[in-house]
Design brief:
3% strand, 26S_Psome_Rpn12, elongated, CSN8_PSD8_EIF3K, three-stranded antiparallel β-sheet, mainly alpha, Serine Threonine Protein Phosphatase 5, Tetratricopeptide repeat
Length: 264
Amino acid sequence: MSSNSTVLYNNLKKEFNSPNPDLKKCGDYLAKLKVALSKMQLLLPEGDVKSAEELLIARDILEIGAYWSVRVKDIPSFERYIAQLNTYYTDYSSLLQPSQAMYPLTGLNLLRLLSQNRIAEFHTALENIEPEQLLESVYIKHPVHLEQYLMEGSYNKVWNSRNEVPAPEYLFFIDILMGTIRNEIASCSEKAYSYLPLADAATLLFFNNNTNELLNFASERGWSVSQAEMKIYFTTKDDDHVEIPSDSIIKQALHYARELEQIV
C-alpha cells in the first residue's frame, strides 16, 4: 500500500477504536481507503495472489467497514462489506492468519438475514460454517437459537435474547426483528380483539409498559386510543361501514322474477 493509504488506515483504526469515535470521519476514511483497495484489486482480490501483509490490511479495513455500517445503521453497506469479506474468509483462509472478527461478523450477518426474513439464505449461510463453530461460538449460537425461537413462535425468548447478546452491534438487528414481530402480533390482535387494555397491549407487544412507544405504534397502525378508559380500540371511528341495501335488492330481485315469468 502507498504511504498515504497507510496513514489513512492508521487514522481509521485509531479513530474507530477510540472510546467515542467520530463515525462521519470514519466513513470518510473508509471511502478513500476503498478507492485505494479497488485500484490495488483488493476489494475482491483475484488473479495474482497479493502479499499476505496487504491482504491482512485489506481484510481489517473491510471488517472495520462492516462494524461501521452497523453503527450508522446502513444495512446495504453492511451487506456489501460482508460479501467482500467472504472472499478473504474462504479463498485466502490458508494464506492469512485467522481473523478474530470473522465469527462475530458472520453471526451479525446471520442475524441480518433473520431480521429480513430471508430464511433460506440463513440456512445456506449456516451450511458454510464449520460444524464445531456452530456448537462452540457464542456469536453463531445466538442467531441459531433466535431462529429456533421464531420457528416455535416463542417471541418472549426473542425479546429476552436482547439481554444475552454477544456484542452490542447485535442489538441493531434484534430491534429490527422485534419490529417485524410486533407488526405480526398487531395484525393478529386486530383480527382477534375489538379492543385491549393499554397495559395488556404493552405487554403483548413487548413495550415494557412504555406508554409513549405504545401510543406511537398505535398511531402508526391507525388504532383509536381512549385515555379515559385506558384502552386501545383496533377499529377507528373513521372506519367506513358499508351497509348492504337489502330492501332495494329484494325489490329488484322480485321485479326480475316477475319479468322472467312473463317471458316464459
